[in-house]
Specification:
- The complex is a heterodimer of chains A (273) and B (88).
- Chain A has 273 residues and is mostly helical.
- In chain A, helix 4 crosses helix 6 and helix 6 runs antiparallel to helix 7.
- In chain B, 92% of the residues lie in helices and 0% in strands.
- The longest helix of chain B is centred in the middle third of the chain and has 33 residues.
- By secondary structure, chain B is mainly alpha-helical.
- Classes of the chains: A mainly alpha (273), B mainly alpha (88).
- The interface between A and B is large, with 47 and 46 residues.
């Protein structure tokens, strides 16, 4: 493979890795358009290569986030159960619903989440007393102080994650961009923890698809390797940037990213992209 | 070692190992290079599953019953997910 193409793939991977690690998004929204438009891959090849890049970005970020206790692995496991069930259900019902309807619903949800984040401050529920509640956890805030938080609306949050799984399975989008706002706005999880936990979850979500694509020989190995190396490097940079950003700023930037994603998906639903 | 530290260690080791193998694979040409790339990607892609398995055993050692059940359910669903992906 031409070294220039490998360098270009690494560059795309770094960009997507930074975005992914900062905001808890998988990176597919960056990978797929670049691979199809700039590198001329078919949709199938792009999806397979993208999945490997998503695993590299999310696991690279999660390895640091988990170490720094930003990813809540327990909560991630619970929400991943719902996401995985949704993804399996999505595979079965994919033939019965038009993609454009889902993409419009998805875009509307993203726009609502973005506006909510812009108009409202982050709400964290601190438990009244120390308890054995499995939904009470600790985190370190922007000032470096240890604080407790209680995860709210767990059942509703799991339903939301299942819906995100259905959507991701049917359209290839929606993992992190639904789960991060859901965790932050609805379940009252601090934004930095929500995005870090999402990174951890996305690696698990992508595992099944990635391993099947790989073992069936559908992955263009050199493309996947170039993209993964870049995504891993980008994820490391993204985790460092995330540590320096204040929570309010992270929410503001995430809102902008969500609006961009919503517009791109609306264009896709309308057949323009 | 608690669940978070153990999981972070496994994720870090396997993602780094996978990336290093891929770098070597890109430098070697021909079929051997492709085989090395395949191995590197396989190691990378396996990291999330190995992370969940590590979390499961770490939670058992912490006797954290509630989360052991959650993790066990997730491992079963991941298995079902692979079967569905292959069959579908």
């Amino acid at each position: 493979m031409d070294p220039l193409i490998i360098l270009a793939l690494i560059g795309v991977g770094v960009f997507a890795g930074i975005i992914g690690a900062l905001f808890g998004l998988g990176g597919g929204i960056v990978f797929v358009p670049f691979l199809t438009i700039a590198f001329g891959l078919s949709a199938m090849d792009a999806a397979a290569v993208s999945l490997i890049g998503i695993v590299a970005s999310s696991v690279g970020a999660a390895s640091k986030h988990v170490e720094q206790r930003r990813s809540n692995i327990r909560l991630g496991l619970l929400l991943e159960v719902a996401t995985a069930i949704g993804a399996i259900a999505g595979a079965f019902i994919a033939g019965f619903m038009a993609d454009w309807i889902l993409l419009c619903v998805f875009s509307a949800m993203l726009l609502y989440s973005a506006l909510h984040m812009i108009l409202h401050k982050e709400h964290i529920t601190e438990p009244a007393t120390a308890s054995d509640d499995p939904m009470c956890f600790e985190y370190t805030d922007d000032k470096g102080e240890n604080r407790a938080y209680k995860v709210e609306n767990v059942k509703g949050g799991m339903l939301g994650c299942a819906a995100a799984g259905v959507l991701a399975s049917m359209t290839g989008v929606g993992g992190g961009s639904i789960k991060v706002p859901l965790m932050n706005i609805y379940m009252h999880i601090p934004i930095k923890l929500a995005s870090a936990t999402s990174s951890y979850m996305i690696g698990i979500t992508s595992f099944s698809g990635a391993i099947v694509f790989l073992l069936n020989g559908h992955v263009l190995l050199d493309y996947a390797a170039g993209l993964s190396i870049g995504a891993f490097l980008g994820a490391i940079i993204g985790v460092r940037l995330s540590g320096k950003l204040k929570s309010g700023d992270l929410r503001k930037y995430l809102s902008i990213v969500l609006i961009i994603v919503a517009v791109l998906e609306l264009l896709k639903a309308g057949g323009i992209m | 070692m608690n669940a978070s530290s153990a999981t972070a260690l496994v994720l870090r080791v396997f993602v780094t190992l996978g990336i290093l193998i891929m770098v070597v694979g890109l430098l070697v040409s021909g079929d051997i290079g492709n085989d090395i790339l395949f191995l590197g990607i396989l190691v990378l892609v396996s990291a999330p599953l190995l992370g969940v398995i590590t979390t499961f055993f770490a939670l058992i050692s912490e006797k954290d019953t509630y989360w052991i059940k959650v993790c066990a359910v997730l491992l079963i669903i991941m298995g079902i997910g692979i079967v569905v992906s292959i069959v579908w």
